């Protein structure tokens, strides 16, 4: 239901933007625990979708990747440049090259400038992009609602578009749309969504969410029908709510184990053993203050997941590096783990 509704909404927005110089919206990709099938919040789950952005006619996106690979979400920027389209535009009636005739195009459509509207300097601004998209959604829903079964409320969000949809019976659906620019042809994106509160608005975080959801889909196609790996994840995710051990750490532990323990061994009859495996793996990681990011330096990635060429040869990123640098945080994490274990 959620994906169909978002597809319908994006179709309306795409039609409204067809002749503009704003980013081209591509079909949304469901990501995160809800679409991976293990969300601990069954009744008020947030459905997060990534909306890929492509440059409009006469523009290019240049990704300036951050170098802080010791942290998983290295911060990068997206530089927007104009490109000459004179030869192509000669074939299209009433269209001018934006690079060589910017004033003429702006006179025709004063709000058409991507650089002037959604950028700070020459860089795509995540906050301005989110505000622009929110305004589009508000107008589209008022004029041509994708669904008449739901009323829509926009929730506050500076770097994404959060919707609360309510049907006649009072049931709520919570949807968050984040924005992403693809790295080449890979499943890695620069995303407007970030876990940092003070990140500059022109910084975009490297996101592995599409690759992760593809990993879980790959597992689903290979695993026997009675495989209980998602139940294991869901159970522990519920237990870890409100602790300092994030669900992302838990998911990474599970992904490493799914890549090493045969899928036939994740059945109902071995459910308790797999729960113990996850617990012991997590305990070992906390003791060593080290958990390798799943996609860096890992030679056993499924072939249908497309990564940038340098990922396989990269040094693994330690997701628990903060525990190495902060002894108090490490002590709290160990204490919380012991409480869970007890």
Radius of gyration: 22 Å
- Beta content comes to 15-25%
- By DSSP, the count of extended strands is 12
| Percent helix | 25-40%
Terminal-residue CA separation = 40 Å
Order of helices and strands: HEEHEEEHHHEEHEEEEEHHHHHH
**Number of separate structural domains:** 2
Which outline best applies?
globular
Which structural class best describes the helix and strand composition? alpha+beta
Query: What is the typical, i.e. mean, pLDDT?
Result: 89
CATH class of the largest domain: Alpha Beta
Describe the largest sheet: 10 strands, mixed
By CATH, the architecture of the largest domain is named 2-Layer Sandwich
CATH topology of the largest domain: Beta Polymerase, domain 2
User: Which ranges are low-confidence, i.e. pLDDT below 50, for 5 or more consecutive residues?
Assistant: none
Q: Helical segment tally?
A: 12
Protein name: Inositol 1,4,5-trisphosphate receptor-interacting protein-like 1
Keywords: Membrane, Signal, Transmembrane, Transmembrane helix
Subcellular location: Membrane
Membrane topology: Single-pass type I membrane protein
Characterise this structure.
Belongs to the ITPRIP family. Pfam families: Mab-21_C (PF20266). It comes from Charadrius vociferus (Killdeer). InterPro entries: ITPRIP-like, Mab-21_HhH/H2TH-like, MAB21L/cGLR. The chain is of the alpha+beta class and 342 residues long. The protein folds into two domains: 2-207, Beta Polymerase, domain 2 (2-Layer Sandwich); 212-341, Orthogonal Bundle (Poly(a)-polymerase, middle domain), CATH 1.10.1410. The chain has twelve helices and twelve strands. Strands 1, 2, 3, 4, 5, 8, 9, 10, 11 and 12 form a ten-stranded mixed β-sheet that branches. A two-stranded antiparallel sheet has the order 6-7. Strand 8 and strand 9 form a beta hairpin. It is globular, with a radius of gyration of 22 Å.
